[in-house]
Structures are given as C-alpha cells and as structure tokens.
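Lecture 7 notes. Example A: sequence first, then its structure tokens.
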Amino acid sequence: MIKAMIADDERLARNELKKILKDFPEIEIIDEAVNVQDAIEKIEIHQPQLIFLDIQMPGNKTGFDLLEVLEYAPKVIFTTAYNEFAIKAFEFNALDYLLKPIETKRLSEAIQKVKKSMEQDTIAQKNHLGVQDQVFVKDGERCWFVKLGDVRLFESVGNYAKVFFGTNKPLILKSLNALEERLDNKVFFRANRKHIINLLMIQKIDSHFNGGLKVTLQGGEEIEVSRRQAVKFKDSMSL
C-alpha cells in the first residue's frame, strides 16, 4: 500500500482524483491539503510516500514553493490544468505531470512510475555505501577516487550535489535525495533540505535560533541542523 496525499485548492478536483483512484487499491489517500502551508504541516505529520500536487495554489504560492521548503521529500506527481510548467516540474524530480482532466490511462502510467521508483529505492537501501567505500568523482577534466569517510559534506545545487573533501568541492550529477538513499545513515545525516553532513567530521555543535542547531565541520563549514531534524540529530549523536 502506498500512502498518498492530495494537495489541491479545488475541492471538485480533489474529489475527481479520489474517484479515479478507487480503481487503484494500492494507493491509500491519507489526507488532503488546500494550500501550501496546509500541505507543509500535513506532510510533516503524515510523511506520505506520494503527493499529488497542484501547481497553482492560493496566496501567490505554487506547488514548486512547497517542494522548495520541504525537508521530507515524498514522490511527486504534479496535477495541473496548464502544460507550460512541465519542464520546471521535472527539474524538481517529479515522477510525472498529469493534465486535468486526468485520464485513467495516464494516471495508471504515473502510478507505475511510482512503483518502479520505490522498488529502486528499496534496492538502493540494501546497497548502502559505507565510509570505507570508494567512489569515482569526475568534474570537468578532473577526476578523483574518494573514500566516503573523507567526504565531510554534500550540498544540493539544483539537480547536482557539491562534494566537499580536502580542499576540493566538485559537482556531481546526483540529487541529495538519491545520495541519501545510498549513504550509511549512521554516518551521513540529512541536516536540512540542502545538506548531508558526515557526523564523524563535526568539530563543534552550537545551539541555533528557532530550536535548531549549528554544527561546524572540520573544513570550517557551518551548517544549520533544522529544528525538525535536530531531534533525530541528538539521537544520532546521543546528546
């Protein structure tokens, strides 16, 4: 069963999607949201595996604005009446982009993509990379074999990630979500939406505003651990 949520300000659109989804018993709708703030709060509470997300939302906020602030990242299928946002949607790693009125056949194709992506996640989780594993990093003409234990920080830069080791900061074509699935979570911690830190490379921990924490890494980088992640961080560090 895939736990899903619908974020759409139009009640008729939500009802129509729920009606079509009755043909897909593997999808369980656990909640609905009517605007971006509502969606943020409910995603944090329920942590759905999948969200059907409208792009145009009330209050000058869009579905893209929602994804930019989320720390927990569910699979995303965009649902919209407009096709001009398609390219941007896939820049946000959306699995599919459905135009309203939604056709059952297209919805079926999108759900198949969700299932395949979740299967790949499961395989990746079984193949975690540890601190002794070496990875090949190429940035332009420069190449490195890097032991993961020497990497202190991964920083999201769009669909790329910046890898911090020694004095080097090359970019690799990997999203932070994809990296998080492969890395050993006993060593590599998702501090916030933009950063994964190596817990063994922390030099100093300070309290930060709004209930969060700030860590200083051995390279001098200061990274905020968000309020939501601070509880998990303290558990990881036994603070």
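Example B, a different protein, same format:
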Amino acid sequence: MSDNSSELSTSRLEAFSDGVFAIAITLLIIEIKVPSHDDLKNQSLMHYIWQQWPKYFAYFLSFVIIGIYWANHHYLFKLFKRTNHVFNLLNVFFLMTIAFLPYPTGVLGDYIITVEHAKPAVTFYAFAIWLPSFAWLLIWLYASHKRRIVDYKLTHHFVTKLTQQYYVSNVFYISAFVISLFSAVASITICVGLTLLYLLPPRKTEYE
C-alpha cells in the first residue's frame, strides 16, 4: 500500500486492468460479421463462413495474446508491494495498447490474404502487438529500479533475469516489425511463434 493515501492500491489497479482486458478481448469478435442475405446471393452460407478464415485466424491470435498478457499481468502484480502516480500512469499506457489491439486485428483479418495490402496489414499488426511489450518493459523498469515498487525480498538474480527477458521480447517484436517490411509471411510466423512461446508458464519467483 502506498504511503500516500491518494494513491491506488495494487488490488484496485488490478481490478481496473481486468475490466479493460475483458472489454478489449470481447471487442475482437465484433470484427467477424454475421453475413447478410445480400452476402449470400451468389454463395452458400458454408462457403461464406469458410472464406472468413483470415478473420478467425486474426481473432484467435489476438485473443491468445491478450489472454497471455492478462495472465502475466496478475503474475507481475504479485511482485509489487506498492504503487504511485507514475506507476499508475504507466499501467494506463499499457492498457491503452491492449485496448487498441481490436483495430489492427480487424485490419489483419480483412487484408492478410490481399496481395497488395497484406504487407502493410501485417506491418501495422506487428507494430500494434509490439506496443504492449514496450509498455510492459517500461512498467517493469520503473518498478524494479532501486526496488522502487517491487518486493524487496525478490532475489537480484530473479529481477535481472526478468529484465533481460522483457528486453529480449522487445527485440523479437521489433524484428517482426522490421521483417514485415520485406516479408509478411516471415513476420506473422515470428508473431505466432512468440505467442506460442509465451504460453509457457512464467519464471518461478525467487525470494531471498
């Protein structure tokens, strides 16, 4: 709990964050439309549903990404013992990047298989999923600097390893963004690979 009574507790911050996660992850499905009768004039319903597979792919990928961030957000907040104004604002910035994801997800679903638009669609998406990773790194760097926010009982080795992990994550996401300028397939493959990697359990907490 912060010494300043005007500051939020970490539990309140988590509750607010959970609400944003829930809204963002729900908004993803809105990009997949129910076909109108006009859509089905020249094709069957099953054919239409099958043709929407790029949107299903984009939805599934972003759903898993947001879900992973939600799970890891709870993991990370167990390491914090207090909060302050700057920390709160950094968390709000992180939530802004999460709430933004439904839009690039919709763009990716609409244009990933369109030859002339696939590359910019993947570039935009790769940039969008790098933003939460960048915000996450900022939160951790601020919180861990001189043990400003994190639990003093955490080992130096654990804090260092997490810092390295979050830096490496950003390097990979930036690489996916840069590669997307040349190859949409290679970039989206990296994005999927990173997502699958982060399905693994987080690092075990180490205390003195």
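Note on Example B: The chain has one domain: 10-197. The CA atoms of residues 19 and 183 lie 36 Å apart.
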